[in-house]
Known about the structure:
alpha+beta
Amino acid sequence: AGQVIDIAPNALHRHQLKGKRGVMVVQIERGGPAAKAGLLPGDVIVEFNGERVESIDDLHRTLTETLIGREIGLVILKLEKKTDAVIIPSELH
Length: 93
């Protein structure tokens, strides 16, 4: 689960991010793709598969069936530090 948040201006400037928002991870499904990728509540997703993420809609638009089972690059802010991660999307059961 995620929530749209405004990114602090100093973090935007420091990491040279385009846009002003990201999607903060609120809840992680145990054993799910986000947990396996090392995401934690409070992390902020700012890029998914090379595309800027500023809303939940951006994530939904970018996450298509063709990406299921493939390694996808993420850019996240962990405690305002820019970090790369890899996630492998899977079907919900």
